[in-house]
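With this grant's support, the team has encoded backbone shapes as discrete tokens. A representative record is reproduced below.
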Amino acid sequence: MLVNEVVMPKMGYDMTEGTIVRWRKDEGDEVTRGEVIAEVDTTKVTVEVEAYTAGVLRKILVPEGQTVPVGHVIAVIADRDEPIPGLEVKAAPAEKAAPVATGAPTPVATVAVTGEEASRIAASPVARRIAREQGVHLNLIRGTGPGGRIVKDDVETFLAERPVEAPRPAPTPVAAAPAAVPQDIPYEDHDLSRIRQTVARRMAESKRVAPHFYVTSDIDMAEALKLRKGLNALLGEGARISVTDMLVKGVAKTLQDFPEVNASFAEGKLRVYGRINIGVAVALEQGLVTPVIPDCDKKPLSQIAQEAKELVERARTGRLRPEHFSPGTFTISNLGMFDVEEFVAIINPPEAAILAVGSVIPRPVVVDGEVKVAERMRVTLSADHRVLDGATAARFLQRFKVYLEQPLHLVT
């Protein structure tokens, strides 16, 4: 067999590195194709890494606890006695650790390091980036990672402890305003989870870069709920269909009619995707993740329900795999189960739109001149104005509304 290199997988377009949490196999163990061999911590969630070929786990190149860039070789699978050329190079032995600082930290201005010297210091990509942005030389920082490697916490600790120049006295203001924020309110600081850090960064980027606009529609869900009840009676407990499953199928059919919504703004052009991969937002204690159901336009409602159920269970038990973060082209965020009537969502970049879904609520409506109570659901489409205009977004919701109000479309 050919030598198979296992690399750090990329989960999401903004992932740059991952950390080996645990090796599920030891060197010398036989593995089968599709078998989980490691767990990796990303900025999104802990995911499982599978073997893409059968063989023997000949060499583990990245130990537990170490962070490496996406695409870095972390292990090698081959036949038991097959020679593996260049294994020493692949192993990338630990570089010389940064010198341990003693006494008071040296002021930054007194030490200079060339780019070549800095590149020889063992440090994670995140640590290098933070150090570069803060103008800090890596040889000033003591590494606490494997083999003396400098990690993110080392840089942040150095920045917090380094001496700073005394500020120059500022001129006395003519009339100093009182502090706007009270100083005597008790508080606690909590570290953000890696997922929450990623959500904060990506959502801030989305609002800053993509010009959002919002279109809301009110949908009569009476027929959809009747159909769901009838299907679940036929399918039984093990294959129950949720409202979210019907939303996914409805969006998939609507995207077939409006391919320009299944798109993104990329490099100054409109990029229209040839697959309909719908992400479904799942709320976890540590933050929000969005696993993706691929090719929703080609799958029946029952299969979508089965895959969605599995994804939610995997997300909540930390068993998501790289393929579950396959690139999405549209996202649905449903807060209806939390008794939320209506809300707007931030676009999940680089997608062009996201659908925010509220609860199904009995509301008085006028039908043929009479006031009746109907099961209504409000949905809001957040759209990127670089890709879509208001008329297209409105027509998209009109068609989506037809599919849900005449739900036999979802099972044909």
